Amino acid sequence: MASGEVQGLLWGAAATDWAEIAEPGQIPFYEAAFAAIELGGSSHLLDVGCGAGLALQLAAKAGARIAGLDASKGLLDVARQRLSDVDLRRGDIEELPWDDDTFNAVTAFNSVQYASDPQAVLAEIRRVASPGSPVAIATWGRVEQCEMRVVLAAIGGLLPPPPPGAGGPFALAAPDMLENLVAAAGLKPRTSIDVPTPYIYPDLDTAVRGQMASGPARMAIERNGPATVRDALADALTSVTLPDGSIRLDNVFKVVVATA
């Protein structure tokens, strides 16, 4: 099974919880990327790995013409409910189903690192972007910058060791790693932005539900069952619960801005 099929099944298993609880936490780096590429009314934007479509909603409000691709049927079903008359397609981000030079802006938010061949994804982004167009790729910052490492460690303990080369949340987080891949794909890196992106939940139950909707958590659920994963997440999140019962995980995402 191709990586897109695997990731699509995982991320779509709890699509509503992802869209309602987890996805809004990504807004800081959506907004930072759109500002960096000067998204506006003249933009024809492709979002690669568009998920449930929240970034595309924000782009449409900025006046952009939009399109998106994701491997997850469940997340695309939510995106189609949010966005009418928009070109949304299901497929693998390593093979984008558009012609060369179709878009004058491209984003990929928290998606490239999960591909079996991230450089192939970046080469496809270069292909569908017209020359000189801005591109923004977002991935997790370094492990030590992200309190989500506590949660991911709890999930990781329920999974077998990944095969060599397998992608994961921090697969492209090492200094200069994403920038070097961007350049190797024929894109021209312009800048790299660190974006503080706190994940904030009103209570433990909401935090656990949101975290259980992620791809890594769904993989752990397939192996161990929901009760085991729920307990592991609750234990990990209890350690970062604030006195009022809310939960805040401070993280940093890296946005690499390039030119096609």
Distance between the termini: 31 Å
The total beta strand count reads 9
Beta-strand percentage range: 15-25%
Structural category is: alpha/beta
Q: Spell the H/E element sequence.
A: HHHEHEHEEHEHHEEHHHEE
Tell me the Rg in angstroms: 17 Å
Report the biggest beta sheet as strand number plus sense, adding barrel if it closes: 7 strands, mixed
Give the % helix: 40-55%
Overall pLDDT: 93
What is the topology, as strand order, of the major beta sheet?
3-2-1-4-5-9-6
Quick structural gist:
With 260 residues, the chain is α/β, with parallel strands linked by helices. It has eleven helices and nine strands.
List keywords for this structure.
260 residues, alpha/beta, 7-stranded mixed beta sheet, two-stranded antiparallel sheet, 9 strands, 40% helix, globular
